[in-house]
Fold:
Amino acid sequence: MSKEGCEPFLQAYDIEANKGMTILDALHFIKDEQDGTLAFRRSCRSAICGSCAVNLNGIPKLACNTQLIPEYKKSGAIVIEPLSNHRIIKDLVVDFNPFWEKMNKIEPWLNQKENYTREGEGLSAGQKKLQNFRKENTLRINNSSKCIMCGCCNGACNSLEIDRHFIAPAALAKAWRFVGDAREKQKKKRLEKISEVHGMWDCVRCINCTEYCPKDVAPLQAIERLRAEAIKEGITDNDGARHVESMVDSVKRVGRLDEAAMTFKTLGFLRSIGMIPFGLRMEMHGKMPMPLIFPQIEKIEEVKKIYEEIEKRKRKDTVSGQQSDS
Amino acid sequence: MAKTLKYAYYPGCASQAITKEADSTTRKVAEILGIELHNMPKANCCGAGLLTDYNYDLYLALNARIFAQAEEMGMDIMTICSTCLMVMSTANKDLKNDPKLLEKTNEILASAGIRYNGTIKIKQLLWVLAGDYGLEDLKKKVTRPLKNLKVAPFYGCHSLRPSRALGFDDPERPWSLEAVISTLGAETVEYNGKIKCCGFQVDLVAEDTALEMTGKRLLNAKDEGGSCMVTPCPFCHINLDNYQGMAEKKTSHKLNMPVFHLAQLVGLALGITTEELKLSRHLVSARDVLKESNLL
Structure:
């Protein structure tokens, strides 16, 4: 409905729902029969183009991919709103420029290594091994390649809700598409860029992105892999990576999470001092975590053996990786 | 209830330190309800998601080590931490779905003489109460109905998502926490922040985001008429209670919202004294709210 410049408002429409009717069918019906001014984006009607993401009863979904009657039965209402975390332009149409800006930031194209040979072209034994390695890598980035850029993940993202500068899950899933690609030569540079503030370490792991992605892209999994890859590449001079490293260290040492030691290691000496007034207030309620006197779990030696085994396997992988590269 | 419920009890790291009161209250509640909780003294940390950011194989192996202990004990695991629930359930699902992955993980575990056969389930206190134990039986044990108490349920993220690995509740329209609250005789407050995030995971990494998020959730619950909150997750509790003062400053709103661990709210209705519930360990006092509702 057209009310230029006014506060957002809800408009009720009565329609007869047919079996199999999608939310997009309903929107078309309303536009055709009741309110020609109703604005919404749509194109393919087949969950491919990624145009029609809306909030349905508070949850981001593709209008074309969601049936009306089951939704109504579940919630007792159908409330269709513009995609959350995005500025409204008109009715259900939101401003997607910030989405594309974030996407552009991760440079969504491949920077191919010069020595990369095409698959199947006169391969030696060593190269065949490399080809298998490539297949595995293709599978690793398969999920990220399926993204249709509908913005459901960004719409559901808790971090983006609070911090509009956050790079957000859609761009991070796309970043993994290239970082995880064996042909990519700028892997480290990419990882350094997304390790900056408002980057991948600002994700709160709310899992909304993975839960509500209509194409099983699993952005959180991409974020976890990006983080692991960054640490492997030695990009650890930031709070996020230090936080992870202190956890890895704490579990190895005592089998558990040692809160005080983790705060100290993540924030460093000076910033930890800043936490003292808060710590004292906690202590008044008996809540101050005591550093370094945390009791070890029983059979901690088993945990240490598992760590050693993982390290052994990592070294082996590195050696065989170097062999196939040469 | 025909047979006694028995669980391998995994309180999680937070409830062995900062939120000890959640652990001690859970043990008392279980005793009253006749649920057997068996300690797992060998159990290591699940990694709270951070190990996943480091090395997937290490995360799986360390979680499988926990599961192997429960298998040895012949029991499913019950935790009182949503993040432990999410991390362990995801690992368990991956291992059970992929025999090759389970075998690879067992090869790593063999270095420590451990094997996991993929037979156990992971649950949390909320599911045990609303599912295995049952709300009808819980109702019979209520001796102090929480009348007049307006409770805002806060699920947080990890007791609902990813639903493919958790599967107990509906991630979009969950019911279990509300069902427990009304079984205890209290009134449920409806607000849209209940399935959102408290911000805990970035407390040390992006403090501004974390505090603003915490403040927003608390304010949302307060605006909708909540006089207190309950959460099944100790990490959510740390942000909602311990960080509430800082969140007030950050958002310039007076909040004063006491936050209960799930076990504490249940314990209150089962007649456990407020001293035994260790409410004094919370930074935001529940005294006024409980007095107003004649529960003190």
Q: What stands out?
A: Chain B has a mean pLDDT of 97. Chain B touches chain A through 63 residues (CB under 8 Å). The two ends of chain B are 32 Å apart (CA to CA).
